[in-house]
Amino acid sequence: MSIQSFVSPDLIRQGFSRAMSAMYREEVPLYGALMELVAQTNAQVLRSDHRVAQQLRNTGEIERLDLERHGAIRVGTAGELATISRLFAVMGMQPVGYYDLTPAGVPVHSTAFRAVHEASLQISPFRVFTSLLRLELIENPELREFARSVLARRSIFTPGALALIDKSENQGGLDEQDAEAFVEQALETFRWHHSATVTAKQYRQLSAQHRLVADVVAFKGPHINHLTPRTLDIDKVQAQMPEHGITPKAVIEGPPRRECPILLRQTSFKALEEPIAFIDQAQSCDSHSARFGEIEQRGAALTPAGRTLYDRLLNAARDELKDFPNEKNAQRYNALLQAHFAEFPDSWAGMREQGLAYFRYFVTEQGLAASGALSASETLEGLLSRNYIRFEPLVYEDFLPVSAAGIFQSNLGDDGQNHYAGRSNQQEFEKALGRSTLNELALYAETQRRSILECCAALDLPPLV
């Protein structure tokens, strides 16, 4: 078979993302209402804020805005994690970053599967935050062994999906017919099941350890628990959610509202209470909270210096609050965030000058007109000052570990064990994964460097980096 007959992994990922969104809209009706609200808000922002609209046109993000989704799943074993990595690889998604959520009382560690090159991200910026349950953190030995035995008996992938993963790996890709079949088969791994795989008593024991432990162990597979669209104004969506029959969280996770957004802000409606049936009961007579609707607003990717400053300011605000942000202290927390983050420059130029964020560089028409007469001794700053090149912030494609943990805790309504020793174990996670995770900061730095080299090539200049 010729390699030319293979479907691009980017297009398989795009098709899978659309299929996932359609499935989730059917399973969670409020998700459809949330999507409509986000679409309306984005259209309003693009009409009223010409600066934002132009920035998105300059970077090409405007074309991907309606496609943007991130999902989240939780797997139970090293074998499941390794195979889910192979499944995502068929779609051109690689594990980026390592997230330890135990300091927030969530017994998992995680990575984000996504595309890594800006050209691939433009086609489909679909991401899946994937967590592995840390069975060693279950304190009760008998319960830990029970959970291990239940997970060992299940198979979360269809035979068809496994066969197509093997085929893709062996021949280097999938043709159109196989790609369509792969999307259909892979989707089954993420589907919700109302029937549990344990008894009611066993479910309650797992849930008493942590609601998330029950969510992972007690079901047939790692149902997608949220599918998040990107909004251009998360505060507006948050304020309008009640008008659409959606009850939002009180606090938007991440940095405060800014003229120039940074990293990631996210909010959600609380997890649904869904009826489930246990293996010792014929009828659904209990409920399980797992799935919720989330929205996000993405800003600039921060450099190591920017992340250090961000962490310091966020921690200072939370230290002063002396509590977990919630409905009762939301107003005070927002005020504290605004006060502390006044130290963080709120202009793209200021962030670039202080080395706090990553940027992409583009040649201007003025630069192209002058390209034949430029000196080999040109500098980046000199080219910027004469408007021969311009810059735009590089969008943050990843997740905030503290923010993700906060979303988990506040939505699951956990009242069980939520204090775990913060034992980060990236080596063990990567052993289960079967490969190393990629460093997100290195990816951003490489994208920035590549954009500068492209400008140099277009201007017929020697490399400036």
TrEMBL record:
UniProt keyword annotation of Iron present: yes
Keyword annotations of the record: Dioxygenase, Iron, Oxidoreductase
CDD domains linked to this entry: VOC_YdcJ_like
Root EC class: oxidoreductase
UniProt keyword Oxidoreductase, yes or no: yes
Gene3D superfamilies named in the record: Uncharacterised protein PF07063, DUF1338 (3.10.180.80)
Pfam families referenced in this protein's UniProt entry, alphabetically: HGLS (PF07063)
Enzyme Commission number(s) of this protein: 1.13.11.93
Swiss-Prot/TrEMBL cofactor(s): Fe(2+)
A GO MF term: dioxygenase activity
Family classification: Belongs to the 2-oxoadipate dioxygenase/decarboxylase family.
Designated name of the protein: 2-oxoadipate dioxygenase/decarboxylase
